[in-house]
């Protein structure tokens, strides 16, 4: 998400230094596998952020959001109940070092998967749970439906970010022209758009969706379908605990697979009567599969019953903010979500 | 009252319109106010929404309904609402001990004893002692955390600072070098870096199996950091006490610790009170840096409150609430410092 782009370099160097220190100290302070620590402690420590819809405290101080629901799903997978999880907000600068130092068992804070983070910093990533990317928010009365129509438009981008470069690249690639307006402060985007100083603004779409709701007339603006950059957001864990990684992988996969089968929190009990052996395995009607992989036969059932499938999690947290499924649709609907088989 | 007013009026006229430059400044100020005040008034009162749900709020005016809905979160953050009396009691306890410490009539041995007891009581209250479920420190937040960290770190840093200040003036070379190195190292490091050390480096330095709570780690590091600053202020006070005092006390046959404890430090403290209050105000505002290690102090809680999808983007209102709270505390502290200076000055207690 865009604020972090500027900090990425700093984060990487801090994280690299920390990683180096950890490696050197690992002889002295060798932390056991993450899952052992979680079981011993009785809670999962999750690092989150504060972006509307993804992770925010409500008026009662209870965390709500898309990633928060995945934290609860993990708690169900490990402990059988959704509340054995501690969410702690973490700034983009410190979250990766904090994960490395064992402060968190997992980051569900919208970390973008990158090769450097995987190779150099030694993090493992679960499945991408959200495909984010740089988007363009335009006034509806321009009659623009795709980014290529924006020939000659004035576009506001945040100065000094990759977003500014990405939009220039995009227009050079498509052979169109545009007038860039660089905006220093992220709060000024709304003013610039409302006053008509720019025709469109560009930022990570997760930011733009939040901004759109703050406009005086949100319905007069539309987020174009194109994404100018790839920001796959995935759960991140420190290396060294394969079983923990698999648990994260298959918890996410379970929500996606459930949506593919049409299993929701409302109708999951009806599916217990299903004749489909795959669904019987998935929901633990046939417990041999879960026993085989060492999980509670009801783990997937409990996740779906409590948190819901991917679509429900999405609709509950992100749809009210105006998110469309887009790339975050099932592969059967032309999206990118695809769960490997449960067998 | 009327005499004061009639005395003030000519002075006011001379001050505002006495010279050409004064007149220009006055007019410019009035113009500025005329530009600023009406839109502000329109935003904060005329176009404002005072009650209702988020969708009742127009973006044209302030949404004070947001404050009604979110005040609990801004002040107490993640603390379980049904146990809210605990942080509330912590706030009251801290206010009580701060007020008592502010009044010279309470200064004495019992106050020094009351401090650790109050801090302990606050810690137990926040932690949820004597209830079925302990409240982990990642659920603490808002005003109690800001006040608690501030009071605890300041209280714990002061004795360390006294020792550091004495060590820096000591004739023992090793001790003096250590104090100088420590103070300069701490003062040469930004507080954010100190917090990162607390968050990231400290856990790695600890032996396996021993883990210290994040809040406690932050408190320890902040205490050590502030001690360096307070030490320098106290040292200034020590230097302001005339040498004759030490010599006279030595002539009476007092030992080092009794000279410092009975003669020098009481005088030095009176001299440095304004400086210490000044530091305390700065430190209160600096507690908002705790946000960088994910602690929800008052400011961070306010920021998070405006990210709730149901009440999205009312940052102005959230920040205004926080500004008012900070202002009340800081303004109170600074008025107090002035009052105390006058009082100590009048009583002739502070030697010059």
What does this 3D model show about the protein?
The complex is a heterodimer of chains A (343) and B (352). Chain A folds into 2 domains: 2-131 and 231-333, Periplasmic binding protein-like II (D-Maltodextrin-Binding Protein, domain 2, 3-Layer(aba) Sandwich), CATH 3.40.190; 134-223, Periplasmic binding protein-like II (D-Maltodextrin-Binding Protein, domain 2, 3-Layer(aba) Sandwich), CATH 3.40.190. Chain A is built from 14 helices and 13 strands. Chain A has helices spanning 2-25, 34-41, 66-79, 95-100, 115-119, 162-174, 188-194, 205-214, 242-261, 268-271, 277-283, 288-293, 299-306, 310-317, and strands spanning 44-48, 56-57, 63-64, 85-89, 106-112, 123-125, 130-132, 134-139, 153-158, 178-183, 200-204, 221-223, 231-238. In chain A, α3 packs antiparallel against α13. The longest helix of chain A is centred in the first third of the chain and has 24 residues, at 2-25. Chain A is globular. Mean pLDDT of chain A is 85; it is low at 1-8 and 19-32. Chain B has 2 domains: 2-46, no CATH class; 69-347, MetI-like fold, CATH 1.10.3720.10. Helices cover 73% and strands 1% of the residues of chain B. Chain B has 13 helices and 1 strand. In chain B, α6 (142-168) packs antiparallel against α7. The longest helix of chain B has 33 residues, at 315-347. Chain A binds chain B through residues 14, 18, 21-22, 25, 28-31, 47, 50-53, 56-61, 64, 86-91, 93-94, 97-98, 101-103, 187, 210, 213-216, 317, 320-321, and chain B through 58-60, 69-70, 72-73, 76-81, 136, 138-139, 141, 196, 199-201, 203-208, 214, 291-294, 296, 300, 303-305, 307-313, 315.
């Amino acid at each position: 998400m865009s604020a972090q782009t500027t900090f990425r370099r700093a984060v990487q160097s801090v994280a690299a230094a920390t990683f180096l220190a950890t490696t050197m100290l690992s002889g002295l302070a060798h932390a056991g596998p993450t899952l052992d620590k979680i079981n011993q402690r009785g809670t999962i420590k999750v690092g989150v952020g504060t972006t509307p819809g993804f992770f925010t405290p409500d008026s009662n101080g209870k965390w709500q959001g898309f990633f928060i629901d995945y934290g609860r799903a993990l708690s169900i997978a490990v402990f059988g109940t959704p509340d054995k999880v501690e969410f702690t907000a973490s700034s983009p600068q410190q979250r990766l070092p904090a994960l490395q130092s064992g402060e968190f068992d997992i980051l569900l804070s919208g970390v973008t998967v990158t090769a450097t983070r995987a190779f150099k910093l030694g993090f493992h990533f679960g499945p991408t749970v959200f495909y984010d990317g740089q988007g363009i928010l335009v006034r509806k009365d321009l009659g623009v439906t795709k980014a290529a129509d924006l020939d000659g438009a004035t576009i506001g981008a945040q100065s000094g970010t990759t977003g500014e470069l990405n939009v220039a690249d995009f227009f050079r690639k498509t052979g169109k022209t545009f007038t860039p307006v660089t905006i220093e402060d992220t709060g000024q985007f709304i003013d610039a758009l409302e006053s008509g100083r720019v025709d469109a603004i560009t930022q990570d779409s997760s930011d733009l969706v939040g901004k759109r709701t703050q406009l005086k007339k949100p319905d007069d603006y539309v987020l174009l379908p194109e994404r100018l950059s790839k920001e796959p957001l995935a759960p991140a864990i420190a290396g060294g605990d394969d079983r923990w990684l698999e648990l994260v992988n298959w918890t996410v996969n379970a929500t996606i697979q459930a949506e593919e089968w049409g299993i929701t929190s409302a109708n999951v009990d009806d599916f217990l009567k299903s004749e489909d052996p795959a669904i019987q395995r998935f929901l633990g009607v046939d417990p041999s599969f879960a026993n085989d992989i060492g999980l509670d036969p009801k783990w997937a059932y409990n996740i779906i019953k409590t948190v819901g499938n991917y679509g429900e999690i999405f609709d509950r947290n992100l749809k009210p903010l105006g998110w469309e499924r887009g790339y975050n649709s099932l592969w059967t609907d032309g999206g990118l979500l695809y769960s490997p088989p449960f067998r | 009252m009327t005499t004061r007013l009639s005395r003030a009026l000519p002075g006011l006229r001379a001050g505002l319109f006495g010279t050409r430059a004064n007149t220009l400044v006055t007019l410019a100020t009035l113009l500025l106010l005329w530009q600023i005040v009406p839109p502000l008034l329109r935003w904060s009162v005329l176009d404002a929404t005072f009650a209702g749900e988020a969708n009742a709020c127009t973006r044209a005016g302030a949404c004070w309904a947001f404050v009604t809905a979110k005040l609990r979160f801004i002040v107490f953050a993640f603390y379980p609402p049904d146990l809210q009396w605990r942080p509330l009691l912590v706030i009251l306890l801290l206010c009580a001990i701060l007020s008592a410490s502010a009044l010279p009539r309470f200064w004495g041995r019992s106050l020094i004893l009351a401090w650790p007891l109050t801090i302990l009581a606050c810690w137990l209250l926040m932690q949820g002692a004597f209830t079925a479920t302990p409240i982990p420190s990642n659920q603490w937040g808002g005003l109690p955390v800001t006040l608690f960290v501030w009071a605890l770190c300041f209280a714990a840093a002061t004795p360390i600072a006294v020792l550091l200040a004495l060590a820096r003036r000591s004739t023992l070379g090793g001790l003096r070098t250590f104090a100088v190195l420590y103070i300069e190292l701490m003062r040469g490091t930004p507080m954010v870096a100190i917090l990162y050390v607390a968050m990231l480096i400290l856990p790695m330095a600890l032996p396996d199996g021993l883990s210290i709570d994040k809040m406690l780690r932050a408190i320890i590091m902040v205490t050590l950091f502030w001690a360096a600053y307070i030490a320098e202020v106290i040292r200034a006070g020590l230097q302001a006490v005339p040498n004759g005092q030490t010599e006279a006390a030595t002539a009476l046959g007092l030992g080092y610790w009794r000279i410092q404890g009975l003669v020098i430090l009481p005088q030095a403290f009176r001299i440095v009170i304004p400086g210490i209050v000044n530091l305390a105000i700065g430190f209160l505002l600096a507690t908002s840096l705790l946000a960088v290690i994910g602690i929800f102090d008052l400011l961070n809680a306010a920021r998070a409150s405006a990210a709730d999808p149901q009440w999205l983007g009312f940052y102005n209102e959230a920040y205004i609430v926080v500004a008012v709270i900070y202002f009340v505390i800081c303004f109170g502290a600074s008025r107090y410092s002035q009052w105390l200076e006058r009082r100590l000055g009048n009583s002739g207690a502070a030697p010059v």
